Amino acid sequence: MRYEIRQLLEHGMSVDRETGLLYSEPGFAVNAVPVRLPAGSCIRTIDKTLKYRCFYYSPEIDDKLIYTYCYPPDANWTTYIPEKTEDIMRSGCRSVAEECFIRISVRDKDIDPHSTFNDVFYIEKGEFHRSTPGWLTKEAESTCARAEAVRRDGDAVFLLLTDSHYSTGCIWDDTVLSLKTVANKLMPDGIVCLGDLTDGMLSFRHTKGITEDILNDLKQICSPLYICLGNHDLNYFKGNPERMTRQTGARLILGDEQLWYFRDIPDRKLRMIFLDSFDPERNERYGFDEQEIIWLRKVLRKTPKGYKVLVFSHLTPLPENHVWSTDILNSSKAMHALEDFSKKKKNSVIGWIYGHNHADQVISYRDFPLISIGCCKLEAFNEHKPEDAVTYTRKKGTGTQELWDILLVHSDGSMDLIRFGAGKDRHIA
User: Fold this and answer.
1) In Å, what is the CA distance from 47 to each residue of 12, 41, 148, 155, 387?
2) Cβ neighbours, 10 Å, residue 5
3) 65 and 89 within one domain
4) How confident is the model at residue 355 (pLDDT cuts 50, 70, 90)?
5) 144 and 119 share a domain?
6) Cβ-count burial of 113 within 10 angstroms (0-12 exposed, 13-18 middle, 19+ buried)?
7) End of a domain among 90, 124, 158?
8) Disulfide engineering: 329 pairs with which of 128, 264, 284, 310, CB 3.0-4.6 Å?
9) How does pLDDT run across 88-139, given as a tens digit for each residue?
10) Residues 116, 144 within the same domain
11) What CA–CA distance (Å, rounded) separates 58 from 244?
């Protein structure tokens, strides 16, 4: 079996022998994103005389990435194994005895400038032998049973997740498997994802490729997919020079240049509004455009009689609930538009659900509840969290590794959020 690796090789780059990190090195080329190989794989080159050097990484995740505020510079959660790394370049095949990730360095004069990984290397033989982990099966059975216990006729049911922050070696494959397992049992009405698919620290082409893979994974679970742009989704983090415009990000992730939109579920009399909440080009990066507020008021005004309204965004609309800035542009206007509508239409706004804070929280002192969702990224610390927000202990290889919700919207406007993984079920009335 040959493994298809789509990525281009990065010219002018190599890997530091001591740390395993990428660095600028004229005359060399390397795959920036480590390639995952199953045990029994064999690495060959198309040109059998080509000399190359392998850098090996373990699937193990360093605890500091889970339990402290830390973003690895190469968006790589694997652990470098310096003792396995080769000292010199040589030709010939390399056999892999156990599952690992690799980067391969070559001299760029020896390959075509536009070469992909597959143009230069041939990976053969190995196969992944993965069964569904017992902890995942157990968690899926428990979560589905609890969801069925509160499910009512006429409910709108969604899988709800946010802040995956995909990096090489992260838990995304298990997250997809858990979502798929539950979807097969519950047959939900769609998936809602509240953004920050990646860290936004790689080159544009690599972020684009990873984002497309994530979106494809979600769309294969069930449809439709409803999604909001997050602040990392524009490839905007840690001074990344290859950030996207909002329009590019919208085309890539939303499939349209329209940054905010709504979708109706007529047979459930539910209008779902998805807002954009970040613009790196503004002085106040966090918040809502003036045009977006005008649009929001229009959409509310034209909402059919008897419909409930549920709002989604990546960002909280309340500045006091945001640790990264003291102001959120037009936050008051957004809240007032919804509260004015809710008063006129007898509490028809049933809630605003958001991510970004990487913590659970329900705010009930406004006219409708505001609900924060913890991150599905494997993360467990209390730094940079709003007051009264809750985080949970997470441990890889257990049910607490995962964190996402089944959202059940009842016809009376109440909601249940049933947690898969770390955290608690929540009833919102």
Assistant:
1) 21, 18, 57, 59, 59
2) 16
3) yes
4) very high
5) no
6) exposed
7) 124
8) 284
9) 999 999 999 999 999 999 999 999 988 889 999 988 867 777 789 999 999 9
10) no
11) 32
Residue 1 has pLDDT above 90, yes or no: no
Domain-embedded: residue 284 = yes
Q: What does pLDDT average to over the chain?
A: 94
pLDDT at position 8: 82
Taking the alpha carbons at both ends of the chain, their separation in whole angstroms is 53
Same domain, 198 and 284: yes
- Residue 206 and residue 341 in one domain: yes
Does residue 190 belong to any structural domain of this protein?
Answer: yes
Q: Is there a single domain that holds both residue 196 and residue 119?
A: no
The residue range of the domain holding 276 is 134-428
Query: What tens digit of pLDDT does each residue of 144-173 get?
Result: 999 999 999 999 999 999 999 999 999 999
Domain boundary among 77, 101, 124: 124
Residues 365-385 have a mean pLDDT of 96
Q: Say yes or no: 298 and 349 in one domain.
A: yes
Structurally, how many domains does the chain consist of? 2
Express as a percent the part of the chain with pLDDT over 70.
99
- Entry pTM: 0.95
Measure the CA–CA gap between 351 and 369, rounded to whole angstroms.
5
